[in-house]
Amino acid sequence: MSSVPSPMASTSSHHYEDNSITDGLVLPLAGHCFHCGDPVPQPPFHAEILGKSREMCCMGCQLASESIVEAGLEQYYLDRSEINRTASLPTQLTRLEAYDHDEIKSQFVYAQDGMSVAELSVNNLRCAACTWLIESRLDELDGISQCQVNLTNQRMRVIWDESKLPISRILAVINEIGYEAKPYRQDTHEAMLARHNNQMLVRLGIAALGSMQAMMYAVPMYFGASSDMLIFQRDFLRWVSLFVSTPVFFYAGVPFFTSAWSAVRARQVNMDVPVSIALIVTFFASLYATITGQGETYYESVSMFIFFLLAGRYIEHNARLKAASMANDLVVVEPVLVQKIAEDKEAAERILQRLEQNVLKQQAFDKQSEQTINQAEGLAVDKVTTIVLSKSVPDFMQSMDSNIHQLTSDIAQKWQQTKNQPADPSKLDALSNVEGDAEEKKMVTAHSLQVGDIILVEAGSEIISDGILLSQAATVSQSLLTGEGDLIIKSQGDYIVGGAQNDSQPFEMLVTALPEDSQIGLIDRLMNRAMSEKPKLAQQADKLARWFVARILVLSALVFIGWYIVDPSQAIWATVAVLVATCPCALSLATPIALTVATNRLASYGFLTTRGHTLQTLAEITHVAFDKTGTLTYGKPNLLNIALVEPIEQHKAYEVNDFGNAEPSEQKDHLLAIAAALEVGSRHPIAHALLTAAYQLHLPATQALQHYPAGGVEAMIDGVLYRIGHVDFALDSTSNPTASNDFTIDLAAERASSAVVLSCQKTCQKNESATWQALACFYFNDKVRDSAKSMLDTLKGLGIESVMLTGDPSPQAMVMAETLGMQSAYNGLSPTDKVNHIQQLQANGAVVLMVGDGINDAPVLAAADVSTSIAGAADLAQVSSDSIILNGQIEAITAAKRIANKTERIIKQNFRWALIYNGSVLIPAALGYVPPWLAAIGMSLSSLFVVLNALRLKRA
Question: In sequence order, what are the beta bridge partners of 144?
Fold first, then answer.
């Protein structure tokens, strides 16, 4: 049955079919949520309601509306008379319970150490007491492990046991105490903050208008008191003042009253409690005087008080938003829609299984390396003393993934072959679960992606997740992850990290990690963790502010009693002045605003703090300990020289192509080709150096290639068995202990940092055991970072001692330390030795910053007071340090120290100012010399001073 569309429907930007069921349907404004009326992000969420796709502002509204539809309660939308977030829902459903659905939880809850972690946006936070109220209330719940609220960013991070407590209960408790929490999403979070900012601006405007009008009527009463103003004229001005002040009190002042009531209801106090008491007492005392005609009225003081408080908080709120917005620039909002063209779950599973095996191998290698590396006691040196630990094994087997790369290459090639063949299910053995062919593309949401999906990444777009390149080649930029703008050329089968950008033609990729588990997702979580955690200094400030509020209330009561005995007419106003003037708002802001600005300033240098205590500890450091490879050096060794060994004519290797009679340069090229062939597929820096040096040579085919943990690589080439690795492995010292003793590696003479030996198995006579003959020694040098020397000189000028702790046993490591001017250095150290050195420094009272590569140095990074990693995109997942240098620029350490020192100074300045102000204004206010409106100005200016002082860190 058709009917005329409703007027509301015809004027809206939405279009609905003519149907009587939608007559009278209340529609939101264009660009607003159909469910709650809030502004929607771009692109918005959608839900099917009453036969049409409706725009939603968040996943909570989306699922709540879908649940209403699924329960057959769509009549709710036809019956409602308004759209707002507080409109009652059907009794059968609650909006918060929607967040317990697995599909929704997976979008904002992730697992960490057996617990669940959620990042939430929190609205209506006003002061440090608000954050403390939420934290203390949630801590009372069984199952909550940790809850930390960030006032500056209006965000919180909660860790809990989901088997004991659903997420909906956590959100409900937050709502019960007067705050609104939603799953964090950058675009909706910014929309929430913008909405809150607009509301503050409207309240501020009403307060400004009301205070001006109230003051205009108050001035005649001031002068009329001394000029015999008629009673009816005075009463008329009082009633008019009441009229213009009422909207200010009951609308503009509502945020203070609701915040105070939430705190009192939770049996706590916050900054708004004394403020609300002062406002309520002043307003109703003035109302009583107006009605009875006895006493004084202070409507102008109430209005001005609210105006100055709102003005201060509005400026403070915008300053905090500006400071917090810098952090959002580090992490892009992931694209909502991507093109899915097929899926191959089996291939992804094979890759992940092989990766897991690789991790187990690496763990076994680390354990074996620590057992086999010779132990030695490090001796402190003044001017670097050379300590050579013979028989130490260089860290050669950092990564052993040639088999994985071969697997990914095979999968990529089979995908291309399958894609180019006519669709024939009997021939799709490479793709076990292909959903459609390459021509049947479909757009899917990022959160619906699964491991094993094959997606098309358009040119110029962000790469949504980690994966394997299936196309022939691609050019990507990882500047967001590493800070380096150089384009990186990827080949078929290579690993691509989420957060990189496709700077070439479109390419196909096999997804190997969910978007939230990608490298860019990890960076976002690390940043969130840092912004959520509170250092001890901030916790102490919050505790002091709460203590101060409680004492203010007690003191105000004593002031009231004292004045009531001396002069009852002044009792109320002196009490109000004390409540207002001494409110410790500036004290509560002293630390968090400075920490937020400093953290984001560090991020602009590429120094990403991942722990809340990082800044405070950086300001206290006395020593900086450095790893060498990949930290003081670039971690990219170059081949310096190939030292040939005297040939053995009867060996088969020298009989091939008359090799024994060849020129030395030809012999070196031949052996370099063999060495490079052994390293094909390896991601170790030494392998990269050999392959780079041999890029124009023909590499022979290898057979039976095998990696040996803590040793090297072995393979068969043209019937000859070769090895490359450290000298003990290459010459098989376990079978022939004297072999390596007779072989000399002279790193000092070659000015090299490391060396590996290429050997081959000698021809054996009957009843003789196989022996190995060295063919050549390859010497490498890892270049020192260009800024290392200036960085160390700066630290020395600050009175900070630098120490080098390296596992490199070569004398060249010590020469490098001496050249850089380091006060002390130790080489040939195992991971345990490094930890022992750090603990020895700490036992002597040192506060140590450890700088490492984030993988091999995990134990010593954890042992230091504060740590940082110079991390690349490939190893971010294994970073266990307190901070990360994303751009590879080691001089960021000096910038971090400078900013940390300035942050400490500014926090102390803010503390001193807040304490001096509160202490100095207390006595005049208690004695009645400070009127309420002047007390409001003083408190607002005190808070503004703290905020503006902290913003100076933006120029640090």
Answer: 160
**CB of 872 closer than 8 Å to CB of 881:** no
Between the alpha carbon of residue 658 and those of residues 651, 661, 662, 667, 776, the distances in Å are 11, 6, 7, 11, 18
Is 272 buried (19+), middle (13-18) or exposed (0-12) by CB count in 10 A?
A: buried
Going by C-alpha positions, the residue among 115, 176, 178, 123 that lies closest to residue 147 is 115
Q: What is the CA radius of gyration of the chain?
A: 35
Is residue 187 helix, strand or coil? helix
Q: Give average pLDDT by consecutive 10-residue segment, the chain, 956 residues.
A: 34 38 72 84 83 81 72 68 60 61 75 83 73 82 86 80 87 80 69 76 92 83 64 86 93 88 77 82 86 80 80 67 50 59 84 71 48 34 30 31 72 80 48 43 72 83 83 74 59 81 80 74 61 62 73 86 87 80 72 78 81 84 88 84 69 49 80 89 76 88 76 85 86 72 76 85 64 88 87 92 83 84 85 84 92 68 84 46 78 92 90 85 86 73 82 82
β-strands 848-852, 866-870 pairing: parallel
> What's the gap between Cα 493 and its chain centre?
29
Centre a 10 Å sphere on the Cβ of residue 789 and count the other Cβ atoms it contains. Answer: 14
Cβ 816 vs Cβ 628: under 8 Å:
yes
- Cβ 542 vs Cβ 132: under 8 Å: yes
**Cβ pair 182, 124 in contact under 8 A:** no
Helix (H, G, I), strand (E, B) or coil at 209: helix
C-alpha–C-alpha distance, residues 568 and 294, integer Å: 13
- CB-CB contact of 220 with 237 (8 Å): yes
Q: How far apart are the first and last CA of the chain?
A: 70
Contact 617, 842 (CB under 8 A): no
Which candidate, 903, 950, 942, places its Cα nearest to that of 920? 942
The span from the CA of 913 to the CA of 86, in Å, is 41
The secondary structure of residue 888, as a DSSP letter, is -
The per-residue b/e assignment along 807-839, b for 16 or more CB within 10 angstroms, e otherwise, is bbbbbbbbbbbbebebbbbbbbbbbebbbbbbe
Return the ∠ at Cα 304 (arms to 301 and 309), rounded to 5°.
120
Give φ, ψ of 2 to 5 degrees. Answer: -95, 160
**Cβ contacts of 724-728, under 8 Å, gap ≥ 24:** 724/675, 724/678, 724/679, 724/756, 724/757, 724/758, 724/759, 724/778, 725/396, 725/756, 725/757, 726/393, 726/394, 726/396, 726/756, 726/757, 727/757, 727/774, 728/391, 728/393
For 760, the enclosing helix (H) or strand (E) is strand 754-761
The 3-state DSSP class for residue 144 equals strand
> CA angle, 416 as apex, 413 and 422 as ends, to 5°?
135
381 near 719, Cβ under 8 Å? no
Beta carbons of 477 and 873 less than 8 angstroms apart: no
Which residues are paired to 802 by β-bridges? 624
Angle between helix axes 592-604 and 932-950 (nearest 10 degrees) is 30
Taking a C-beta distance cutoff of 8 angstroms, is the pair 690, 778 a contact?
A: yes
Q: For the chain, how are helix, strand and coil distributed in percent, rounded to 5?
A: 50, 15, 35
* Strands in 125-281 per DSSP E: 144-150, 155-160, 180-183
Nearest Cα residue to 817 out of 276, 246, 387: 387
CB burial of residue 353 (10 Å; 0-12, 13-18, 19+): exposed
Q: How far apart are CA 169 and CA 162, in angstroms?
A: 11
